[in-house]
Design a protein that fits this description.
It is built from six helices and four strands. It has helices at about 15-30, 45-60, 85-90, 105-115, 120-135, 145-160; strands spanning about 1-5, 40-45, 65-70, 100-105.
């Protein structure tokens, strides 16, 4: 897996951001039986940065914790089968890797939510990465049934990795 992390905030963390994100991403892809080597970009920003992205791409003028920008159009959620006419858009021509998309996390919201929910910063970060990765795999939470599926999958990934609500 290719993983690119851009930390716009310059903040440091009490855990290895890239190592944690890579472990979560790889576990999600394994659980979803992704048959390809994949590439994901992760941007760590602040509330102002994520608010601008939310306004620009979703027409919502407020901060949020995480935004997902999937590169793939799934025919069936979590099934890595694509129409032939779009396949060239999904794979990096130089590496052949599947370009899943981008994850943008507000470090401000991440810290706030870790405190609010009473768990570690690493756990909140891993949760946001897992949540976003499932979006990159075609999942959504627009209704209660979809939300329950995503929540269960996220919790399973974190449990397997031993990233609990400590």
């Amino acid at each position: 897996m290719t993983f690119c992390v851009e930390n716009e905030t310059g903040e440091s963390f009490p855990f290895d951001i890239e190592e944690t994100a890579r472990a979560v991403c790889e576990m999600v892809l394994e659980s979803e039986k992704c048959p390809y080597e994949a590439a994901v970009n992760l941007v760590l920003t602040d509330n102002e940065g994520i608010r601008e992205l939310n306004r620009q791409y979703r027409d919502i003028d407020r901060e949020t914790d995480v935004l997902s920008f999937p590169n793939l159009d799934f025919i069936n959620t979590g099934v890595f089968e694509f129409s032939d006419e779009r396949e060239a858009d999904y794979f990096d021509p130089d590496t052949g890797k599947l370009m899943l998309g981008d994850i943008c996390i507000s470090v401000d919201k991440m810290r706030e939510q870790a405190t609010e929910y009473g768990h570690s910063l690493r756990r909140e970060f891993a949760f946001l990465v897992a949540h976003s990765m499932f979006h990159l795999c075609g999942y959504d939470h627009m209704d209660d049934a979809e939300a329950r599926i995503m929540e269960q999958k996220q919790e399973e990934i974190l449990a397997v990795l031993g990233i609990t609500r400590d």
